[in-house]
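Q: I have 113 residues here and want to know how they pack in 3D. Can you give me a structure?
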Amino acid sequence: MKKQIVQVSIAQSAKVVAGIYFVTTIPIAVIIALGAMIGGHGMAGLALAIGISLGYALGGFLMSVLGAWIYNLVAARGRLRVPDRRSGQSLIPQHPYRHGRPPCRTFLSSSSA
């Protein structure tokens, strides 16, 4: 049984992705801030670490908005289908011929000379 995803919530998807991106950059931001403080840059390093985290989250939000919008445009045409896990069907469409090429017809002709 195939199920079709008709629409994705643009704002909700973008918020989730932005939150995930922000949370994943927090450890990197801490390392950058510690390195900057040890190196004597102090507040500039902390501001850079916070800016990187927020910028990465904002970029993820904007790209998710774009991706969800494009998905909704394509899904509205009814071309995207997701197979049910229980059916075991592949996402790759099957070729109409058994081995990927048309059946070969061999014509035997007798030569009368």
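Q: Anything worth noting?
A: Residues 2-83 form one domain. The chain has one domain: 2-83.
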